[in-house]
Amino acid sequence: MTHIPVLLHEAIDNLKLTEGKVFFDGTLGGGGHSLYVSKLFSGRITIIATDRDCDAIARVQEQLPSAILECTTFSKLDEVLEKHNVTGLDAALFDFGISSFQLEESGRGFTFMKDEPLLMTMKRDPNDDDITARDVVNLWSEETLADIIYAYGEERYARRIARAIVAERQIKSIETTNELARIVATAVPKSFGKSRIHPATKTFQALRIVVNKELEEIKVGLRKALGYLSEGGRIAAISFHSLEDRIVKDIFREAEDTGMGVRITKKPIVPTSVEIKANPRSRSAKLRIFEKK
Q1: Residue 196 has pLDDT above 80, yes or no
Q2: In the chain, pLDDT over 90 holds for what percent of residues?
């Protein structure tokens, strides 16, 4: 399977990288952005990349032999840099989308297009104390389920969906993506079937965000990257839904207001119609750039 990086040229071109600089890729994923940077500079640039999915690291390790690759969350950027005696960054990239590999090959339940165990964990092997999507749908209260589906999925039928989940689990536990998708589909009005997105899309998004603490990770990671960024250095952040984009926008605006730097993009850069046609998953992507003074 081929991974297609989103907004590749728009992101990398706007980072204004040059030879000898330090580039941090906080979300290695399919490796597209880092591989492009490595090829662009023929290895004459320092690449540091993180991904909490160790499978992502393993997939591209041979193609990035000189890069520093760490299987950890980008919120631990400071620990990674300290470990490798790196004191600053010249550019940082964050692509908050879920990779094609995680959707289609991980078997961890990120998609309702396949029948898989309800995990939704970015980690290949979650620890005993890590929550999974199965834990959430089978153990959390109806009120809490409704709140997270509404808040993180921006789902208008959150209460109906939560009620249907609780009713189903009283009969038997909910174990797979197909089971959950069916429950959601029966809970929303039949008119929803005319929508271009699957009825379970927003519920799955909400569960994935909660399981992986994604929004908290973004806040911590972006702020740490800003702290390590050198004068004139830039951060590029690619988000895929309004919750992510709002955090990026607010953090960049806050940094600008405190005199830390300037927002290069007052309005986000979005994919061209050509890119969307070639890669439909890119249609909701938004890219924002910040430059440190």
Answers
A1: no
A2: 82
Rounded CA separation 116/50 (Å) = 26
pLDDT at residue 193, rounded to an integer? 58
Which domains are assigned to the chain?
8-101+214-292 (3.40.50.150), 102-212 (1.10.150.170)
pLDDT at 123 over 90: no
